Amino acid sequence: MIIGIMKQRQSIMEQKKLEIVIEDNPIDNVQKTVGLALLGLGTVGGGTYRVLTGQLDEIQKRLGCRIEIRHILVRNLKKASLRVQDSRILTNRWEDVIEDDGVDIVVELMGGMEPAYTYIREAMERGKHVVTANKDLLAEHGPTLLELALNKGVDFMFEAAVAGGIPIIMPLEKSLAGNHLTEIMGIVNGTTNFILTKMSEEGMDYREALIQATELGYAEADPTADVDGLDAGRKVAILASLAFHCPVYFHDVHVEGMSMISAKDIRYASQMGRTIKLVGVARDTDTGVEAYVCPMLLPKSHPLSSVNDSFNAVFVHGDAVGDAMFFGRGAGDLPTASAVTGDILSIAENILHGSSGRIGQLLYKKRPMKRMEDTYNRYFLRLHVEDRCGVLAELTEIFARYEVSVAQIIQREHQKDDLAEVVVITSLVREGDFQTAIEELSYRTSVKKISRMIRVYE
Ligand SMILES: NC(=O)c1ccc[n+]([C@@H]2O[C@H](COP(=O)([O-])OP(=O)(O)OC[C@H]3O[C@@H](n4cnc5c(N)ncnc54)[C@H](OP(=O)(O)O)[C@@H]3O)[C@@H](O)[C@H]2O)c1
């Protein structure tokens, strides 16, 4: 009789796990344990360990199952032993993880291409679910890994890979699924946003702002991936793929850095009612997908223009939702751990409900990628010309030949060398045509120097 009641109760529990949490002592009633292995115990791995262990009771009550960290894979066991409560869970042997049937979810937080790529594939092949924060890997192999996860019926989640703590992947996959998204753009690199904020608000030059970003730990010792736009480019590839349901790789994204932006550009932009930000933009147009990262002038009224310091934000436009913006911390141990933990709990819930592997065909479309010269933008152009009558007419005549019209203009006399500095913002023009107009301008003797060309978002 008692066994019968227990069996009946167990089956009700299996069907309706959520009801378990309202019982007095939920964990004692639940047999199921979800086993985890963390690969890496650095910034994000360490943060994830702290969030998971700090909130374990709460998490287990909410899920109605036990969560067990069975292994943490590192290279340096001694260093890692200072960061965990029980160093017996540390290992430097991948075999300990992959051969353990008690590991349900592998959480890859090592970074880099290899061995991360191999470990993730091996985990999926063995039916283990995977969470990763690895944007470099996803921008190269994301579509292949999504397909493998689909074939193996396992979950594959990567919320932390784009904009750290900001929930954007889940909204793209689920909450905004009823939309046809036509544009996604964002400030997805905190280091460069910090530098540009310091240049705008405190008048610092690029070098000064970079030094401060390094001192505060926002910039790496080698900041190339950030300031050259590579980090943002990888995130744009991931965002564009999910927003438009077609594979977009890092090599498809046109990438330009921000280190040439000067305090002077920022001052002129401000006089013209705009802010300069390093943004990633992806659009789904009638003629294909365009994806690029570059410094851009944003109108001061645009929500992204007030995203300052090391904050990140992603701005989405859909046919049903209209405009929506997601804002928060794009990096750091705990913000990123927050996203990783969210993924772990979603997967644990799927395991409990027997509903894993519902990845679906996320990237089911084939779309051509547009060349940068076929995109349309407005442009900010700063140049030095001879300070005499007729030079502006020469400029506008060349522009007119390529259907470029001038929307805004500032002219400043140069005291020393009889030159005038001219700054214009053009109307919307095809990039290839604008480049040809600029080339033609550069041959004119009246044009002494073309100092800057920055795209303008409208
Ligand atoms: N940091 C952030 O704010 C942030 C934000 C979003 C996404 N991410 C992504 O998160 C991932 C991790 O970044 P992180 O900043 O946490 O890196 P990290 O601080 O350098 O930590 C890397 C960890 O992985 C371990 N590891 C590296 N290679 C290994 C190998 N071959 N075998 C075993 N263990 C290995 C390291 O162990 P040892 O110390 O023993 O070498 C270390 O514990 C990266 O993909 C990164 O792009 C980071």
Structure notes:
This protein has 458 residues and is α/β, with parallel strands linked by helices. It folds into 3 domains: 153 residues, NAD(P)-binding Rossmann-like Domain (Rossmann fold, 3-Layer(aba) Sandwich), CATH 3.40.50; 156 residues, Dihydrodipicolinate Reductase, domain 2; 84 residues, Alpha-Beta Plaits, CATH 3.30.70. Helix content is 39%, strand content 25%. The chain has 17 helices and 17 strands. Strands 7, 8, 9, 10, 11, 12, 13, 14, 15, 16 and 17 form an 11-stranded mixed beta sheet that branches. A hairpin with a 3-residue loop joins β11 and β12. α8 packs parallel to α13. The protein is elongated, with a radius of gyration of 26 Å. The N terminus is likely disordered. The site of NADP nicotinamide-adenine-dinucleotide phosphate (NAP) has 24 residues, from α3 and α5. NADP nicotinamide-adenine-dinucleotide phosphate (NAP) binds next to α3 and α5.
What's this entry about, in short?
The chain is α/β, with parallel strands linked by helices and 458 residues long.
